[in-house]
Amino acid sequence: MTRENSPGDTAGRWIRVSGDSQSEADQLPDLNDYCDDRGYAKGKVYEVHGKSAYKGAQDPDWVKVVKDVQDGVIQVVVCWMVDRMDRQNILHAIPMALAVLNAAGRIEFSEQPECNLDANSPTIDDEIKAFSDRIHAANQESKIKSKRILKAHRRRRESGSVIGRAPWGFSIFCVVCQRPPVRPGCKEHKKIFAPTALGRTWIPRIYARAVDGRSGFSMAEWLDENHVPTEHGRPWNEAFVLALIGNPIYYGARRNGGELKTEALVSVTVWQEANDKIASRARKSGSKTHEKAKLAPVCGACYGTVRPGCSTGISPMYRKFCGTKRVPYYVCAGCGPQRKGCGSAVLLSALDSAVDEAFASRGGQHFEREFIPGDDRSAAIARFRENGAAAMKKGDYEAATAAGKEAARLEDLPRIKPHWEPVTTDITEAEYYASLSGEAKRLYIARHQILAHVDMDEDEDGEVIETIIATITDKGPGG
Question: Hey, which CATH number is domain 10-143, 3.40.50.1000, 3.40.50.720, 3.40.50.2300, 3.40.50.1390?
């Protein structure tokens, strides 16, 4: 056992629980009584909540304990039981213990004092054996518990009940009690993902913007501007938006979901189109040092000219900072695999001003855009295929044949892709453009093709006059 002459030492109290069904408060009284009985000064409490010792999730917190022992903040670590310290295996637990012992600290267990570890104890070998036996028992208990949980998960999947947290825009709903589940009464009941009011409103809008080619960053800004809350209360970010768009739950499927049925908030067609647009976007790395360019013009100097590897004759212009003063220009980049620009460069500020003037003078009627989700009947086809397979298993070949024919008929119908259609308004293009600012103006301009070039002419004195010409063409509702 540990040495007796240790009153006055400062004890750090280690409390670990692996889930919300357990409470740190259940362990603390026993730890306090243990410290009082031995005359230890009660030092820091190390609370480790919701971290599995079977997976070693408590390691970063244990590093803090070791550092405090090394710094002399505490001299002894008091745990409730051995399995509160570790459940992984002997090879993981022994180095944890040695880190404290090598720093001249001790580890003691209020409910299992026979496992107390003190490098100066004359019975250290017996203590290590008792400690190792307890770790092995805890590890085996966790393995059995893990198998039991996996079996329960498999049973719940087969019954169509959800496992895990609800994704954004959904909540978990008990189909038996017709309410959000309440423990312990709803524990064995079937539970599903039910769309929330936020999900029904904003998920279709998010996917519509993704189909429109918006970036994850711009969608995150848009959601924050509209005060759409996140689960954790922090601002939206690009990574979360892109992960949300890639989650198949929003068209009614769930990864490893078994027989789980979930209401779709968008169609399979919209989901696929949105993810295709996200995948096709150029991925940029590095820090953002400049604001985004307002325009993405096409070079008018070589418009229609076919170059090596180019079949369109359309050469984009990109912003480039030139000269020692880093003046921004739009520079022709060429196109095709062997792209080489024609050398045309247009002063960025001059072209931006020319485009602003051109939009401000447009007198035509403004058209808003309405998102049409489209349909390829994927959900209905999948249902007929499933019904056909189920009928085949039962030996009902007539029903299986009928389901297969109906699925084939739907597959032969024209596919309607998600798209945008124009809707007339009562304001002019100039009035609408004047109402925009910032990112909204840039996105609106992106729906038009800007053909840019510099017209060179001479005045009466023979001096060269440069005129910036911007020709604007509407790309259409889906542009």
Answer: 3.40.50.1390
